[in-house]
Specification:
Its EC number is 2.5.1.43. Belongs to the nicotianamine synthase (NAS)-like family. Keywords: S-adenosyl-L-methionine, Transferase. With about 325 residues, the chain is of the alpha/beta class. The protein is about 35% helix and about 15% strand. Strand 4, helix 8 (about 210-225) and strand 5 (about 230-235) form a beta-alpha-beta unit. The chain is globular, with a radius of gyration of 20 Å.
Length: about 325
């Protein structure tokens, strides 16, 4: 029964992949929107029966291509709406009309989820947060800065100069956000100075679409971030891995202590991995029993998750005592 379910789902995804790959353009249109909506609705249901890593090579190749198509379409969609917001609402604050973006409610839920996760592991309100891969419509930074961190400065990094200029134009009409939002045109692999100033670094799901690319970025952040700083990485689980790259907490986060892995089971697509940059140890004589690798950095226990359970993240946290909407997620205990 499980094999039949998996085969049916994979076949449907592959059929949509072939239709998407034959489109003349991935710019927003009725055909593009329809196909990607069908793809999301196919992949979003909870699918514990599917393990992406065990699929045949041909399907793995199709999945990699599909993720790149999704990334291109997402970028074009954000570009379209960033332009639309600035041009249509230039006489007023464009940020007051973010709800016109089709997936705005998902960003609200994901940012709320990430804020609650942060609150479980961050002792104080972060003063500086970096977002790597912010794009032309930096919704996560905007939502976090507006709803959750009203006194925090956000530094947004993107490799695309046009994306940077569009994002900057979008927030320029808001006096508060334009003061607290800083935008950089940079390949994060070329940024070696300044990353140690951030309390928290977010890594967008589509920065590093292949495992090697993603791991290279994470390794670079591990070298440049301050010991004790938090890394928020977006991943995917189950059939949602046809839409976004997967980060393996047991092998892709060397130099970090993995704190929690959360797999949403609602319409929020991305999983969230939070990890802490390991402290730099001055001696190499610590024993393996103490959890160190003997070469001056904390060793990660290479264990697979043993249990997945549904949990509620409480709205009560270190940052405020207000009642927040609870998000239902699945937590992998590492």
């Amino acid at each position: 029964m499980v094999c039949q379910e998996q085969e049916a789902l994979v076949n449907k995804v592959l059929d949509l992949y072939h239709k998407i790959s034959t489109l003349a353009t991935l710019k927003p249109s009725k055909d593009v929107d329809t196909l990607f909506t069908q793809l999301v609705h196919t992949c979003i249901p909870h699918t514990p029966f599917i393990d992406i890593t065990k699929l045949p090579t041909t399907i793995q190749e199709a999945r990699s291509n599909l993720i790149r198509l999704c990334g291109e379409a997402e970028s074009l969609l954000e570009t379209h709406y960033s332009t639309l917001l600035v041009s249509s609402f230039s006489d007023e604050n464009p940020l007051g009309h973010l709800h016109v973006f089709p997936y705005y409610s998902n960003y609200l839920k994901l940012s709320h989820l990430e804020f609650n996760i942060l609150s479980q592991h961050c002792e104080a309100v972060p003063t500086k947060i970096a977002f790597v891969g912010s794009g032309p419509l930096p919704l996560t930074s905007i939502v976090l800065a507006t709803n959750h961190f009203p006194n925090t400065t956000f530094h947004n990094y993107d490799i695309d100069a046009l994306a940077k200029s569009m994002a900057k134009a979008l927030v320029s009409s808001d006096p508060d956000l334009s003061r607290r939002m800083v935008f950089h045109t940079s390949n994060i692999l070329d940024v070696s100075h300044g990353l140690d100033e951030f309390n928290v670094v977010f890594l967008a799901a589509l920065v590093g679409m292949e495992t090697k690319e993603k791991k290279k970025v994470i390794d670079h952040l591990g070298k440049c971030m301050a010991p004790g700083a938090l890394l928020m990485v977006r991943s995917a689980h189950g059939a949602r891995a046809f839409l976004y790259p997967v980060v393996d907490p047991s092998s892709d986060l060397n130099g970090f202590e993995v704190l929690s892995v959360f797999h949403p089971i609602d319409e929020v697509i991305n999983s969230v991995v939070i990890a802490r940059k390991c402290p730099i140890i001055a001696t190499a004589s610590l024993s393996a029993e103490q959890g160190f690798d003997g070469v001056g950095s904390m060793a990660l226990h290479n264990k697979c998750p043993e249990e997945i359970q549904s949990v509620f993240i409480s709205g009560n946290n270190h940052y405020n005592n207000g009642n927040m909407t609870e998000e239902l997620v699945a937590q992998e205990k590492l």
